[in-house]
Structures are given as structure tokens and as C-alpha cells.
Design goal:
Pfam families: ABC_tran (PF00005). This is ATP-binding cassette domain-containing protein. GO terms for molecular function: ATP binding. It comes from Kitasatospora cathayae. Keywords: ATP-binding, Nucleotide-binding, Transport. There is one protein chain. The protein is an alpha/beta fold and 271 residues long. It folds into 2 domains: 189 residues, P-loop containing nucleotide triphosphate hydrolases (Rossmann fold); 74 residues, no CATH class. The strands form 3 sheets. Strands 6-7-8-3-9-10 form a 6-stranded mixed β-sheet, with helices on both faces. The chain has a 4-stranded antiparallel β-sheet with strand order 2-1-4-5, covered by helices on one side. Strands 11-12 form a two-stranded antiparallel ribbon. Helix 3 packs across helix 4. The longest helix has 17 residues. It is globular, with a radius of gyration of 19 Å. The structure holds adenosine-5'-triphosphate. Adenosine-5'-triphosphate (ATP) binds next to strand 2 and helix 1.
């Protein structure tokens, strides 16, 4: 992989995914450039995770093409490609009581347990500290994994995914199940990260507009495996398009960079 690669980080062209004779995605065309931060939005079963699996080189399309970092899926070793992507797995299979610092360091070798027999490179140790700071985990760097809350684990896993300096960060519903403070800390960390690494691109899957960081630049709306709209947030995050995507009249608004959504008002008899 050439570090000087400067085309679109991700490109899909007219992609279909068919499983068991069923279209999970149909005709998806998308291009993601460095510095862009995409939201993948849609109701349950819309195909968001299916699309994220393609973008993360985890699965192949049935038809159409997917280019990840300039390499076409189907023509390259996808394990090699995945090493250049920061894919945050919310079901990280760690069971042992490693500290936050140790968990983040495992991102350097992309292993679950640290390579105890090898002393980590000083650059890797330094990067761990920078990322722990950016993700707001400095006060709990020595806390054991087993005692962390879900929100703390989520932020530690983002730091871990960033260890190999990926060009692209993929996040599948990172705020699900977090309380209000944990969600706000996570979104704040993502905003800071994007500010500190202007070349990074990201794709964040969610059902909830309230879970989108202020720094979101683009959105792709999915419904029934098809793209309702894709483009800049100003073009796409509209009351009309979000209502069409979720199949319900929803009014959206943006205040100080963040979005809220609510069902359009119905007249209640007697009020
Ligand atoms: N291997 C498969 N074979 C058949 N259908 C599948 C397969 N994998 C997923 N599906 C179906 O494809 C549809 C899209 O699934 P996907 O997980 O991509 O949706 P999603 O938008 O991420 O949903 P959610 O918001 O509920 O997580 C769903 O109806 C799901 O049941």
C-alpha cells in the first residue's frame, strides 16, 4: 500500500449485495475523500452494516466494484487491506484484565493480547499516550479493561483502532447503549480527533441523528438496501429526505452543529 496514495479512500460503483436470493444492497455508488466524515443513516434492516462490511473489506459485493484505498476488492488480499483500516469492533473479544494502555498498544500489532516477549517501539509507546489523551482516557490509562464502562471501552477501542495511523476509521453504532455523558464524551473525542488528523476520513453508522458529531461532513441515507440520497450534510440532512428514509414524517433541526429529530406534530384532540 502506498502511503502517498491520494485518490478517493473509498469508491463503490453500482454495488449489489445479494444473500439467499435477497437484495440487501442495490445500486450503491459512493466516493469518500480524505477529510470527509460520513454518516450512514437508515432504519433497522436498511443495509447499513452490510455496506460497512464492504467498506471495511470484510465481505465482497455480489455485483459492482468496491475500491478501498485504491485497491479493488476481489483482486487483493483483503487481510492485508484491513490492516490499513481502523475498524472499531464493539464486540472486541478481550477477556483478560489488560489496562487501557495495554489494550491501545495491541492496536499496533493488531492482536488481542500484547506481544509480551517483545518490547514495543518507543514511537508506538508515544502514540499510545497521544491517543489516550485525545480520547479523554488519560485519567484511567492504568484501569483494567474488565472494570471499564461501555463508553470507556468504546473510546479505548477507537484509540486502539487508530494505532496503525489508518487513513479511514469505520464506526458501527459507537454511541449505542451509552448514557448521555458517555455519548457526549465520545462525540467530543471524535470531533477532536478529526480536528487533529485532517487527512483522516471516517464512516459512522447510526439510526439516531443525535449521535452524529458536529464534525460530520456528509451523509448517505439508506432504505431497503437502496440509497435515498448521498452528499454533503446540507444537501442530505433535510426533513424531507430523512422522513422518506425512515418512512415517517420526521422534522429535523440543527443547533450549534448538532442535529435533533422528532416526529412531525400531529393534532391531538382537545389540546
Ligand atoms: N447473510 C444474510 N442472508 C440473508 N439476509 C441477511 C443476511 N445478513 C443480513 N441480512 C438481512 O439484510 C438486511 C440488512 O441487514 P443490515 O444488518 O445490513 O441492516 P442494518 O441497516 O445494519 O440494520 P440495523 O440497524 O438493525 O443494525 C436485514 O433485513 C437482515 O436481516
Amino acid at each position: 500500500m502506498s502511503p502517498s496514495f491520494d485518490g478517493p479512500l473509498l469508491r463503490t460503483h453500482d454495488v449489489d449485495v445479494v444473500r439467499d436470493g435477497r437484495h440487501l444492497l442495490r445500486g450503491i455508488t459512493l466516493e469518500i475523500q480524505p477529510g470527509e466524515h460520513w454518516a450512514l443513516l437508515g432504519p433497522n434492516g436498511a443495509g447499513k452494516s452490510t455496506l460497512l462490511a464492504l467498506l471495511g473489506a470484510v465481505s465482497h459485493p455480489t455485483r459492482g466494484t468496491v475500491d478501498v484505498l485504491g485497491r479493488r476488492l476481489g483482486r487483493v488480499d483483503i487481510r492485508e487491506l484491513r490492516a490499513h483500516l481502523g475498524h472499531v469492533n464493539p464486540r472486541h473479544p478481550l477477556r483478560s484484565p489488560l489496562t487501557v494502555r495495554e489494550v491501545v498498544l495491541t492496536g499496533h500489532t493488531n492482536t488481542i493480547e500484547p506481544e509480551w516477549h517483545r518490547k514495543p517501539a518507543p514511537e508506538a509507546v508515544e502514540r499510545v499516550e497521544q491517543l489516550i489523551e485525545t480520547l479523554g482516557m488519560a485519567a484511567m490509562a492504568e484501569a483494567p479493561w474488565t472494570t471499564l464502562s461501555q463508553g470507556e471501552r468504546g473510546r479505548a477501542l477507537i484509540a486502539r483502532a487508530l494505532m496503525p495511523s489508518p487513513r479511514l476509521l469505520l464506526l458501527d453504532e459507537p454511541a449505542t447503549g451509552l448514557d448521555l455523558t458517555a455519548r457526549e464524551l465520545l462525540l467530543d473525542s471524535l470531533d477532536l480527533l478529526r480536528h487533529q488528523h485532517p487527512e483522516l476520513a471516517s464512516v459512522l453508522v447510526t439510526h439516531h441523528l443525535e449521535e452524529l458529531p458536529e464534525s460530520t461532513t456528509h451523509a448517505l441515507l439508506l432504505r431497503g438496501g437502496e440509497c435515498v440520497a448521498a452528499g454533503t450534510v446540507d444537501e442530505v440532512m433535510t426533513t424531507e429526505l430523512i422522513s422518506e428514509t425512515f418512512g415517517h414524517p420526521i422534522r429535523i433541526s440543527r443547533h450549534e452543529g448538532r442535529w435533533t429529530a422528532r416526529a412531525a406534530a400531529r393534532r391531538v384532540p382537545g389540546r
